Each structure stands twice: as structure tokens, then as C-alpha cells.
Amino acid sequence: MYVPEIDFLTFDDLPDVLRLNAKSSCSWPEKVIRADLRKDSNNEITYLGAFATTAEAPLLGYAVLGREKREGLLMALFVDDLYRRRGIGRQLVSAVGDCATYLHFRRLRLKVRKSNAGAIALYTQMSFIGEKVRRGYYSNGEDAVIMSARLPLRAGALR
Ligand SMILES: CC(C)(COP(=O)(O)OP(=O)(O)OC[C@H]1O[C@@H](n2cnc3c(N)ncnc32)[C@H](O)[C@@H]1OP(=O)(O)O)[C@@H](O)C(=O)NCCC(=O)NCCS
Questions:
Q1: Partner residues linked to 103 by β-bridges
Q2: What confidence tens digit (pLDDT) does each residue in 46-99 have?
Q3: Does some domain include residue 156?
């Protein structure tokens, strides 16, 4: 397991977030990320980053927490493909869970592509359960699985 430094992302981290976002198969428009990370942004969206513990501290992954009605929404989770399967995704989800608990959300919800077996396995380990399937949710017609977990995320979810 690799233990990164997990911290809130700020506008200074924009180039690193954009670098990782560009690697993602479901990248977000730059203007959305730019607006989210602006210091005066009050849109209740929180970006958390996993940093390497070396001097240059490059960003290895990030997660985005938003709100949907009265619940936390895990809007994005991405780990650099060079650093996968080292527990970074799990640690980011755990940090998002802590943040959502601090914000007094009772549940954390997310949508994931039905074909994304790796992410579904990760979320299941972190105590998320599949609630329902939203047919044809993604632009290519793929179904989304909606998963949610009670907060705080189960202790012991981190190994
Ligand atoms: C999904 C993703 C965030 C996982 O990040 P990661 O840092 O590799 O995940 P972890 O190392 O914390 O994995 C935790 C567990 O999840 C499961 N898992 C993660 N990736 C997996 C994969 N590709 N295949 C099967 N199981 C996987 C495993 O059980 C893993 O534990 P193990 O390595 O001890 O077997 C990463 O693959 C990613 O960024 N993918 C592209 C973006 C994406 O799909 N995001 C989710 C959208 S909802």
C-alpha cells in the first residue's frame, strides 16, 4: 500500500488536476474544474487530492465531493494509471467519507458505469451497496449503477 498525503485541492493545483483529468476517459470540461477550484467559488464542491510524499509532491489522484439534495455525492474519483492498485483510490474514498461526515451528510451516493468492475469492487469494499440501475445513463448508452453508503464509512474499510 502507498500512503499519500491527502489534502484539499486549491486553484494552485489546477495544472495537476487538468493533467490527470486529461487522462480520464470521462474527463470534465476545463472551465468546470477551473470554476470549481476558484477561491471565491461557493458551489459546495470539494476537491481532495492524493499527493506523493516526495519534495515535488505531484498529484497522484483526486476525488470530488458534491451534494445532491441532503446527501453527499462522490462526483469523481481518479488515480493516475501509473499508481493504481496501491490503495490510493481507497484512501481517497475514505477521506471523502470523512469530509461528508464532517458536513453532516448521512449518506454518500455515487454513479458508476456498470462495466467498471474495478471501481465497483472498490466501492463495495468501502461499504457501498448497489441501489438501482439507471438505464442508458451515459452518452454511449451504458447503464449507471447507483451505489450508496451510510456515513461514517465503516471503520475497517481501510486495510
Ligand atoms: C477506480 C480507481 C479510482 C481505483 O483506484 P486505485 O488506486 O487503483 O484503487 P485501490 O488500489 O485503492 O484499489 C482498492 C481495491 O479496489 C479493487 N480494484 C481497484 N481497481 C481494480 C481493478 N482494475 N480491477 C479489479 N479490482 C480493482 C481491488 O479490490 C482493490 O484492492 P486490491 O488491489 O487489494 O485487490 C482507478 O482505477 C481509476 O482512476 N480508474 C479510472 C477512473 C474511474 O473509473 N473512476 C471511478 C469512476 S466512478
A1: none
A2: 999 999 998 777 999 999 999 998 899 999 999 999 999 999 999 999 999 999
A3: no
